[in-house]
Structure formats: C-alpha cells, structure tokens
Amino acid sequence: MTDSTPDESQTASEVPVLERVSLWKEMCTKEDWWAVWIGAVVLSIAFLAVYLNLPAGFGEQVAAGENVKVSSPLKSWIAKPGSWSSNPIEAIYKAATTGEDDGRNLLPGLLGVFGISVVVFGAGITAMGHNPLKFARGFVGIFLLATLAYVLAGQAVVKHYNLEYALWALAVGLIISNTVGTPEFLKPAVRTEFYIKTGLVLLGAGVLFSRLLALGVPGIGVAWVVTPIVLISTYAFGQKVLKIPSKSLNMVISADMSVCGVSAAIATAASCRAKKEELSFAIGLSLSFTVIMMVVMPALIKALGMSEILGGAWMGGTIDATGAVVAAGAALGDQAAEVAATVKMIQNILIGVTAFGVATYWVTNVETNDSGVRPDAREIWYRFPKFVLGFVAASAVFSTIYAVLPGGDEIVNAMVKQSTKTLRGWFFCLAFVSIGLETNFRDLAKFLKGGKPLILYVCGQSLNLILTLAMAWLMFEVVFKDAVQDLVK
User: Fold this and answer.
1) Which helix (H) or strand (E) holds 455?
2) How far apart are CA 363 and CA 194, in angstroms?
3) Which DSSP symbol is given to 376?
C-alpha cells in the first residue's frame, strides 16, 4: 500500500498545491484525525472502565459527603518501569523480601501498554496507507528503546536530580542515529508526530476547567498575558534583529520557548509547515534548557527567599515541559507544586489558540508576502492542526464530567492518574525516541551557524523569566494575595 497524499511534515515550498479531499476522506486518512480518534477511543474505554466498576450506591455516598475510594481496573494492565538502585531488573520485577515489601511485577502492565499501542497506532498506520506489518516489526524495537529510557530514568540517583525519561529517550535515539545509524527496520515505526499528537489529545482530559478556576484570575494573568507578549516579541526579534533566514524555525523556537515546550512546538510546526529537522532542533534546544531550569530554578528561588506560591507561579510560566514543572514545583513544596501545575495547565490551553493564530498569520501574511499570491482563506482550515480539536474536546468533555457527574472529580482523577496519564507518558516517550532516531547532528549543524537560534532562545527565555516573575509577583503577592493564600491552605 502507498500513501495517497503528501507527507504532512513537508513544508509548503516542498509540497505542490495539495489536492483538496472531502472532509470525510481527510478524517479517515490523515494523521491528525487519527490522533483524535485514537485519543477518543482510549479516553472512552478508560472512563467506562472506572464508571462501570463504581461501588454500589456511589452517588448516594458522595452526596452524603462520604469519602469513597475509586480505582481503575486498568491500573494493573497499564504500567511503566519503576525505580531501582543497583539492579535495573528491579525496575520491572522485584521479589518480595519482607512482610512490608510485597515486591512488584510490572511485566503484565508493560505488555498491556505494548498491546494497546501497537493495535491503535497500527490501525491508524493502515488507514493512512502504510504497511502495518512493517510498522509492527519496527514498533517492537521502538518500544524496547522507550522501555530502556524509562528504566534509565528510574535509577535512584538519576531520579534525585530529576533527569526525566524524555531526556533519556532522546539520548538513546540520538546515540543510535549518530553512531551506527537508524536501522531500516525501525524506520516505519519512527512516527514522532503521530505519537505526540495522540498524547496531546489524552493530555486534554487532564486540563480541567474546574481545576483552573481554583487559581483562575492570577494564573490567567501569568499565563495568558505574558505568553503572547513573549511569543510575538521573540519572533519579531528573530526576524528584525537576528534576521534568522527560516521564518518557520524562528516561529517554532518562539512558540516552544514561550508557550509550553514540545507540545506547542508540534502544534506550531504543523501550522507553519516547519521542516522535520527544524522541529527536532527546536525540541532539542528546549529539552536542554528545561533540564537546566528545572534544577537551577528551585535552588535559586530558595536562595532568594521567595515564597513557595510565587516560586511555583514563576516556574509554571517559564519551564517548558509540564512534567518538569511538576517535578521542579515538588522540589520546593506542596504549595509550589500545586500553583506551578495550575499555571502550566492554564498555559497549556494556549496550544490551540497559538496553533490557530500561527496558521492564520502564516497563510494571510508570510506565504502571501513570500509568493505574492494570496492563498484561499480555506487554507487556514487545511493548515490548522486538527489534533488540537481533540485536545480541546477532551478538556471540555471531562471538565463537564468532573463538574456535573456525582463524584465526577473522583472518577476523572482515577481515570487520568491510573490509566491515561501512564499511556500519555508512553506515547511521549515513543515520540522522544523517534525524535532522536531521525535527528542527525550533521543535519542540525546548519541551524547553529552564527549561533542565531541559540541567541534567540536565550534572549526570549530571559524576557520570559523577567516578565513572568513580575506578573507572578503582581498577581500572587499583591493583587490576589489573600485569595490565593486561602485557596492553597
């Protein structure tokens, strides 16, 4: 079977005018839409697994104010490697040694994740016109490399320094691609964007409006005011001052750094048709600075004597990756972790807004100016990354369930924490491995020529740090100080 449409990762200059297909055909054969369908199926099954196994009289018990424990029956079938100290096998299997230590066997959970992943992604691969058997064979290797990354991240010393799986997954892939080269049998399963787009749809179920309201207005002040200022300023700085030749690289770096890291980079790259190597470079740059910031910022905040709330808000608005934000916030304390996570979730909502804004700007300004031909306004729809619709829909649906259904908060929390969050982590890990496998330093060297992209990131992040700290201080320490203190007690 062969592809019937051009590769979505190609730039506008590389792809001739696309043949417009019907919406139905697009929804059946395009990667973005399959990310939505897979996300919808996984979220539906995860929700029903919890809902259909609620204890008898659950609604009445919740109404009476009783604390009812809710769990997902999928929990034991969806797992990731655990922590270990000296024996890496203990990350997956550990025999019980004392009465207090029951040991663990995570192999069924790993096999469960593998089975789910190869089936759902294999279905999408088949519908998009690729060979499912070649994909499945390559996916075995990709999954084993992702498992290795999780095992490396679980080592006790590594965990102490918060060197998360994303860094190890990227490193594993980079080592292979830049030494022996990516084996041919793996390449059909190197599907970076497919994995991460699906993971982002699952992320939507955890971005709940009701939780955002807990620290609403001050968090919005930090995330929704500073972020667009930094995005626009950084892009303008790259074009007007640094004169970066590639506008798409400039935009992806700006969005990656100002919005929320890899997630925003993927969405923005789709909107402006950035090249794969440009996206890989931006993500690598982001991950490098994320590791530095998540280690340095908590120590700096403590040294400066900042409050946990102010420090958490500052980190939530500046550290790129959501997982890194939570880890850095936890290093400060529970209050910092809550505030940091909430600010980051509010900022995550801008993924869809940013993608739409960039698509509109690119179609109506950049490509018009470059070619002298004004594209049809419908191009904005074709350019808009459709998986963002899945992200927004998941957020809306599960926010409603959370707020309306009796015990909805317990149901959604059990669903997310015990199944979809784990799957989301795996999908992201698969994506980071894939990024490494398709990234060659020789290809990326041209982007560092003159150091302009690095200067762009450093200057943009510096502006981000300054403006976010000022706004966080104003919102959390001055204007809404009393209200925030009451909420986080």
Assistant:
1) helix 452-472
2) 24
3) P
Q: Which residues contact 18 (CB under 8 A, 6 or more apart)?
A: 5, 6, 382
Exposure of 113 in the CB half-sphere (CA atoms within 13 A): 29
Quote the DSSP letter at residue 54: P
How many other C-beta atoms can be found within 10 angstroms of the C-beta atom of residue 466? 13
Instruction: Give the DSSP H or E segment for 94.
Output: strand 93-94
| Residues 212 and 453: beta-carbon distance below 8 Å | no
Six token digits for residue 351: 């993924």
- Which tens digit of pLDDT belongs to each residue from 61-77? 888 888 888 999 999 89
| Residue 154 · residue 83 · CB < 8 Å | yes
Q: At what angle do helices 276-304 and 247-255 cross, to 10 degrees?
A: 30
0.85 exceeded by pTM = no
Which residues, 6+ apart, have CB-to-CB distance to 382 below 8 Å? 18, 20
Q: Are strands 93-94 and 104-105 parallel, antiparallel or unpaired?
A: antiparallel
Task: Return d(Cα 281, Cα 252) in angstroms, integer.
Answer: 10
Dihedral, CA of residue 395, residue 400, residue 402 and residue 408, to nearest 10: -130
Residues 98/104, Cβ–Cβ less than 8 Å = no
Return the residue matching tokens 């440009």: 278
**Distance, C-alpha 200 to centroid of its chain:** 6
- Residue 104's φ and ψ, nearest 5 degrees, are -160, 150
pLDDT tens, N- to C-terminus, the chain (489 residues): 333 333 433 433 333 333 456 778 888 888 889 999 999 999 999 999 999 999 888 888 888 888 888 999 999 899 999 999 989 998 998 877 655 556 788 999 999 999 999 999 999 999 999 999 999 999 999 999 999 999 999 998 888 776 778 778 888 998 998 899 999 999 999 998 799 789 878 888 876 766 566 566 788 888 888 889 999 999 999 999 999 988 989 999 998 888 877 778 877 887 888 887 888 788 878 877 877 787 788 889 988 988 888 998 899 889 876 666 766 776 777 678 778 877 887 787 777 788 888 888 888 887 766 555 555 556 566 666 677 788 889 988 998 998 888 888 899 999 999 999 999 889 988 988 887 888 777 766 766 667 888 899 999 999 999 999 999 999 888 887 776 666 555
b/e burial code for range 383-412 (CB count within 10 A of at least 16 → b): bbbbbbbbbbbbbebbbebbeeeebbbbbb
